[in-house]
């Protein structure tokens, strides 16, 4: 099994990108690697083109460096720096966040609160990839949630899948989080981990790279919410069990007894 560096945001972003690309259709494989994310085509200008060139230069340098490391462990990233000014604008790929190719779904939400609520439900924010021509006009080279040709293909949200490496990262994140001091003592720790893993499998690809480059924080928050949800559920169940035991004149849990001794927590005393 390959080593999973699950604490590395760069590795997480790489696997997220691969997973999302499995749901996409591109004119060529090279069109799947974007250089900048923008909210609309109108945001393509001199400044964003320059930023895209810098991003592309850094990305290509890192790719060359990682290839070199396979044969030379002492290779330095600085040795592979590229000049952004030498990058041709027609080589740039712009990711545009848009719902234009996602079918409308009237009535899916009774009270739509966002643009997404008016369209078919999908597993991550939709986008299209564009390139520039010499005359600065744009043309589409890829679509998310799409199968087949860009002109004769069709919307499809089910033909892709999460990569095995991203799934391993999710498993490791849940396992590591469950060993923290404030969680590992609970007898239902396994249930907490299972719930967190289920939640990650459902929302893992909803991470939006246009808003953040820190998926680790996003996933940690998701796991925390899942653990807390199970904890609160178990507390409610325990409170109900204690109430039933008290009504039948039996001794409740140690937690309830401790609440009596402390005189707080809302628990009923034995004589109430």
Notes on the protein architecture:
There is one protein chain. A hairpin with a 6-residue loop joins strand 6 (146-147) and strand 7 (154-155). The protein has helices at 9-21, 46-69, 164-178, 189-203, 215-247, 254-262, and strands spanning 25-26, 36-38, 94-97, 127-132, 138-143, 146-147, 154-155. It is built from 6 helices and 7 strands. The N and C termini lie far apart (59 Å). With 272 residues, the chain is α+β, with helices and mostly antiparallel strands. It has a 5-stranded mixed beta sheet with strand order 1-5-4-3-2. A two-stranded antiparallel sheet has the order 6-7. Mean pLDDT is 89; it is low at 1-6 and 262-272. It folds into 2 domains: 23-155, no CATH class; 164-262, no CATH class. Helix 3 (164-178) packs antiparallel against helix 4, helix 3 crosses helix 5 (215-247) and helix 4 crosses helix 5. The protein is elongated and about 85 Å long.
């Amino acid at each position: 099994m390959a080593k999973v560096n699950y604490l590395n945001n760069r590795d997480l972003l790489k696997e997220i990108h691969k997973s999302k690309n499995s749901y996409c259709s591109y004119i060529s494989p090279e069109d799947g690697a974007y250089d900048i994310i923008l909210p609309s085509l109108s945001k393509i200008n001199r400044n964003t083109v320059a930023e895209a060139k810098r991003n592309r230069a850094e990305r290509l340098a890192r790719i060359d460096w990682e290839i070199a490391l396979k044969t030379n462990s002492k290779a330095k990233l600085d040795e592979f720096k590229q000049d952004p000014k030498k990058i041709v604008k027609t080589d740039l790929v712009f990711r545009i966040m848009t719902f234009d190719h996602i079918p409308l779904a009237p009535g899916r939400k009774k009270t739509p609160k966002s643009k997404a609520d008016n369209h078919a439900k999908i597993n991550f924010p939709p986008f299209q990839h564009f390139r520039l021509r010499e005359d600065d006009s744009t043309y589409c080279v890829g679509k998310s949630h799409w199968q087949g040709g860009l002109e004769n293909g069709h919307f499809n949200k089910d033909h892709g899948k999460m990569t095995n490496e991203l799934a391993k990262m999710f498993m490791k994140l849940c396992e590591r989080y469950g060993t923290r001091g404030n969680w590992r003592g609970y007898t239902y720790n396994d249930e907490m981990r299972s719930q967190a893993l289920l939640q990650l499998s459902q929302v893992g690809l909803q991470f939006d790279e246009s808003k953040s480059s820190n998926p680790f924080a996003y996933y940690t928050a998701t796991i925390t919410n899942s653990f807390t949800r199970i904890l609160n559920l178990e507390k409610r169940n325990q409170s109900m069990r204690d109430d039933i035991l008290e009504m039948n004149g039996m001794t409740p849990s140690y937690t309830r007894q401790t609440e009596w001794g402390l005189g707080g927590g809302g628990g009923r005393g034995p004589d109430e």
